[in-house]
Amino acid sequence: ATPMSIMVSVGRAAQLGVLVRNGEALQTASKVTTVVLDKTGTVTQGTPELTDLIVLGEKTLATTVNKAELLRNVASLEQHSEHPLASAIITKAKTDGLVLVEPEQFTNHQGKGITGLVNGLQYSVGNASLMQQLHIGEWQSCETLSEEFGRQAKTPIFVAVDKQLVAIMAIADPIKTDALEAISAMKSKGLKVVMLTGDNQATADAVAHKVGIDSVIANVLPEQKQAKVIELQQAGEVVAMVGDGINDAPALVSADVGFAMGQGTDIAIESADFTLLSSRLMVINDSLALAKASMRNIK
Ligand code: ADP
Ligand code: MG
């Protein structure tokens, strides 16, 4: 490819709302065979909302925790998390008029949840894997409920106080309006489409089903996202990875071409070859088509 023709393509990409970090990536993009999509903020809008908060039977409570107090304390902890789910919890607490407090202690468990001390109580907030790690066994008694949330494409979040399960919450994140269209366009071009997410299997499956993705890899930690991309490459695929989060950064670097959502975290953008200024998924198809067209012109 001549430098001139690449520059022209980079300009065209900008008109589509795609910032190209380096011209070489355009050449690689013309050869992509598999598109790997992160779920939260990539397939979904990344504007999660807390839809359910169920306080479990009082007999399991070490202390009497009411709903408002629980929400206030969880939201107070989540103020220290950068996860998109955290903002859903904080927003709900503030909408309910709750005044957040400063936790005495906070720990982030990447890809699992958070723990910390609020008003002298030890909170653990996160997925089943965090509950398992902390030996909070009773989460299993909520499995039916959590699977039901999963079927509704909601993310279930467990809350334990002083190592006793006290509540389960659900967070819904609407699917992007053009996701189904964009994904069927990818498939009709012969591309394989894979969803890769740290969220649980049931929720991931429900979202994938809505947008026509058949291949779902769920429950993956950030390093595992990268390992999955490498596995696909070793199987002969040329991989485009699309993501927005801190947890997508290593996978974006390892992919043959990385696409970051423009409203994503800085580290995702720095790790990617392309930055999508629009949140529409269709722009990925436009970029791949542009890459193909520009390589044809060059030959
Ligand atoms: P994703 O690929 O969906 O962005 P992550 O790897 O960031 O997922 O997180 C995986 C799971 O860990 C989330 O679906 C959620 O269940 C749990 N989790 C992570 N961070 C938090 C948090 N701050 N509060 C509650 N749960 C969290
Ligand atoms: Mg994400």
TrEMBL record:
Location in or out of the cell: Cell membrane
Name of the protein described by the UniProt record: Copper-exporting P-type ATPase
Stretch of the intact protein here: 390 to 688 of 746
Protein family: Belongs to the cation transport ATPase (P-type) (TC 3.A.3) family. Type IB subfamily.
Species name: Shewanella fidelis
Domain of life: Bacteria
